[in-house]
Amino acid sequence: MSAMHFSRRQGLVGGLAALMTMALRAEAGAEPKAGAKAKACIVLWLNGGPSHVDTFDPKPGGRFKAIKTRARDLWLAEHLPRLADHGDKLAVIRSMTSKEGNHDRARYLMHTGYIPNPTVRHPSFGAWVSREIGATSPELPNFVSIAGPSMGPGFLGLQHGPFIVDDPAKKPANVELPAAVDEARFQRREGALRAMEARFDLDDPQISGRQAVYEQATRLMHSPKLAVFDIEQEPEAVRKAYGDTKFGRGCLLARRLVESGVKLVEVVLDGWDTHQDNFERTRKLMGTLDPALSSLLAELHARKLLDSTLVVCMGEFGRTPHINAKEGRDHHPAAWSAVLAGGGIRGGQVYGKTDNEGAKVVERPVTVPNLFATLTTQLGIDPHKMVTSPIGRPIGVTDEGEPIRELMT
Q1: Helix or strand run (H / E) with residue 14
Q2: How far apart are CA 22 and CA 172, in angstroms?
Q3: Which residues fall within 8 angstroms of residue 135, CB to CB, at 6 or more apart?
Q4: How many angstroms separate the CA atoms of 164 and 179, rounded?
Q5: Which of 183, 278, 330, 350 has its CA at a distance of 20 to 30 angstroms from the CA of residue 381?
């Protein structure tokens, strides 16, 4: 069974990581590479593994009817009517396949592009994006995760980890001075900290990195850009359009963050691990996903941001075509779906195909490394770039993935 485990400690570490990200941006070196189609990416993470045959790959005779979309060959489940109206913007990959049917292993795979390996902790996709193109907004994190922990930076260093926003309806934690600390006292504390840390070895990148994080944390606390986290500034009609849900508010915040220069935002919708009562639970989850994703696409398009913002909607695997004794579907990594939009992706297309049940991929299988190579290429990141880990091991941005040119404009 799937569960989101997110402790306060993880949150603090995640927040610290993001602040380090901001601090060490100069070290990362990075501006978007020439030819990049996308400047930013929003990942909608459907935690638990959504049933592909009940959402993006409906089959004749299925429990949910298939409905037409704005794309001629693309049909979606009937409980995604608003998303269907944006079919011309979507590239639905119906031939994703892997061998990882365990939640933790599959979640690792779909966040890093690598199967778990006890000898190395691979960087997440967000961490790579932070390192490679995160350089334009020094007052905001490069990598933000909303309503979930996402995945850490691996050997790239804590500075490239996610800044975690647990509740998009509230300000990030610890950005205001405590009641007993005024600005003058805060400045004195900062000075004391600098004096103590001056005795440490500044050649150690972990120490210098943490010092830079403290400085950036201060800048964030005093930055007018903090207002971007306040979604109440949006008109009521806009907030309603995304849906009165944590995920809907997260998608609205994601749009605001990307608009303000954040490079990668992940928004989590949990609950797709439907071993029991699959149809009712999946129907309700689509009721949350549909207004949020369709509003996100509509707003990015209206604000002329969709062409430069890559939107990805996926989970860790699909679910079995057969129904179990508890009216549920079990894990199924052999065949499943992922949805892409914007950021130089050619919309209005279905890529790949499963058999009549949705059990096997029968046309154009897509591996996880190839999906990641497609995403990084659109962001101007060389999927074959190699980085040496602290123990001297060369690790690629992707696991020898090749971009899928047919998905690109």
Answers
A1: helix 8-23
A2: 16
A3: 25, 26, 28, 29, 30, 31
A4: 23
A5: 350
Q: How far lies 31's CA from each of 129, 131, 134, 259, 396, in Å? A: 10, 10, 7, 17, 19
- Side-chain-side CA neighbours of residue 232 (13 Å): 5
Query: What stretches of 256-333 adopt beta strand conformation (E)?
Result: 264-270, 309-314, 318-319, 331-332
Higher pLDDT, 159 or 162: 162
Q: Which two tokens stand for residue 56?
A: 């993006």
Enter the tokens of residue 196: 């103590």
Residue 387 host element (H or E)? strand 386-388
Q: Residues 197-228: pLDDT tens digits? A: 888 766 766 776 677 677 777 888 998 999 99
DSSP 8-state assignment for residue 69: -
Pairing, β 90-96 against β 336-341:
antiparallel
On the CB side of 269, CA atoms within 13 Å amount to 29
Calculated CA dihedral for residues 171, 175, 179, 182, nearest 10 degrees = -140
E-only strand ranges, 99-183: 143-146, 163-165
Return the H-helix or E-strand segment holding 45.
strand 40-47
- Buried residues in 368-391 as b, exposed as e (16+ CB within 10 A): bbbbbbbbbbbbbbebeeeeebee
Q: Which residue is associated with the tokens 């995403």?
A: 375
Helix (H) or strand (E) holding 338: strand 336-341
* pTM > 0.70: yes or no: yes
Which ranges in 164-268 belong to alpha helices (H)? 183-197, 205-221, 236-242, 246-259
* One-letter amino acid of 394: P
> How confident is the model at residue 20, as a pLDDT?
42
